[in-house]
Amino acid sequence: MTARQDYIFTSESVSEGHPDKVCDRISDAVLDAFLTEEPEARVACETFATTDLVVIGGEVGLSDQRRLHEFMGKIDQIARDCVRDIGYEQDKFHWQTVKVQNFLHQQSAHIAQGVDAKDNKDEGAGDQGIMFGYAVNETPELMPAPICYAHNILRKLAEVRKSGAEPTLGPDAKSQLSVHYEGGKPVGVSSIVLSTQHLDETMTSDDVRAVVEPYIRAELPDGWITPDTEWWVNPTGKFVIGGPDGDAGLTGRKIIVDTYGGAAPHGGGAFSGKDPTKVDRSAAYAARYLAKNVVAAGLAHRCTIQLSYAIGVAKPLSIYADTHGTGQVDEAAIEKAVGDLMDLSPRGIRTHLGLNKPIYQRTAAYGHFGRAPQEDGGFSWERTDLVDALKAAV
Is residue 26 classed exposed, middle or buried when 0-12, 13-18 and 19+ CB atoms within 10 A define those classes? Predict the structure, then answer.
């Protein structure tokens, strides 16, 4: 069946001040702190936030349990530093006065026995599951256009808020773009939705639009906004109470925002707060890395990679590639090539992508994919250094 060529597809993003993203940020900050202490630290950290309260729980592990006990005293400040950097100084959610409760505890020995490498046994996956990676040549980042530009808009608004250029904007915001496709390519936006917290209670929706519209226009490709584009800026009116005071937040509730905006399948596992032995995170990064390299190599215009794992088993149970009718080579050849070129065991992924580093707090908002790889190893899964090897292998 031929893929549709003319349609409208919608994706949303949420800002770093969204209640769920506050929790993702704290969970990943805790992870980074543990990985700074010990690169092989084990962390599965969940955060809940509501009015005047942050609750942190989950399982953690260091090789020296005495250090683990000492480290627990740092958790309160880690959470406050996140809230302060995001920008919350509201009466009922302020980085100085919010109550932080820490219920982190030692990792389960029954989980560890299936994951740890010992007695010449390869380190196993931290859980069963399926993970997907995706890439498409719609944008320079090889990401779907709707989610890519929805992220860019909110990232820009956060930048001008924090710089002081737009002091009336608050930390909590959501964007949504409906992108019009013609001939299978994105050509414009049929509607733009932007809801942002504002600190001036007298501002109307029109006032907020006057502030944000220039930045939205600057982030979208030329010609994408037309007289027919519908604008919905703060459509419910005032948005002064934001963040966890306005709506409770939880780690891991924005898995579609974190990935491909609904343009690709999702295995269901969240990322934030999980160390890279958890294949929910590391294998999803590996699958994105492989899919992106397939597209960057010109082997397909669009590619989905699926990996599957069983707890305690090192090698993936399956590797599946789908080029959605755009492939230049057989998909079975791609599956064989990616499996040959990259060790897809949990340790192999961590080694290849350098994941045992404190690089995760920066992923907690504006997407885990489509970001530029960084000199310290951040976003290493966005590299395209397998292109030549893939071309040679197929």
Answer: buried
- Distance between CA atoms of residues 38 and 51, nearest Å: 33
Residue type, 7: Y
Residues 6+ apart with CB under 8 A from 214: none
What residue type is 142 in one-letter code? L
The pTM assigned to this predicted structure is 0.95
**Non-local CB neighbours of 119 within 8 Å, separated by 6+ positions:** none
Catalytic residues: 18, 20-21, 46, 59, 174, 239, 247-248, 253-254, 274, 278, 280
d(CA 173, CA 164): 17
pLDDT digits (tens, 9 = 90+) for 360-386: 999 999 999 999 999 999 999 999 999
Question: CA nearest 83: which of 41, 47, 58, 43?
Answer: 47
**Cα(185)–Cα(248) distance, integer angstroms:** 38
- β partners of residue 134: 304
pLDDT tens by residue, 190-219: 999 999 999 999 999 999 999 999 999 999
Report d(CA 261, CA 197) in Å as an integer: 22
Spatial distance between the Cα atoms of 270 and 193, rounded to a whole number of angstroms: 25
How many whole angstroms separate alpha carbon 307 and alpha carbon 323?
15
Helix axes 279-296, 331-341, angle to 10 degrees: 120
DSSP type of residue 72: G
Q: Which residues contact 95 (CB under 8 A, 6 or more apart)?
A: 80, 81, 83, 84, 88, 89
- E-assigned strand segments in 42-117: 42-50, 53-61, 89-90, 93-94, 99-106
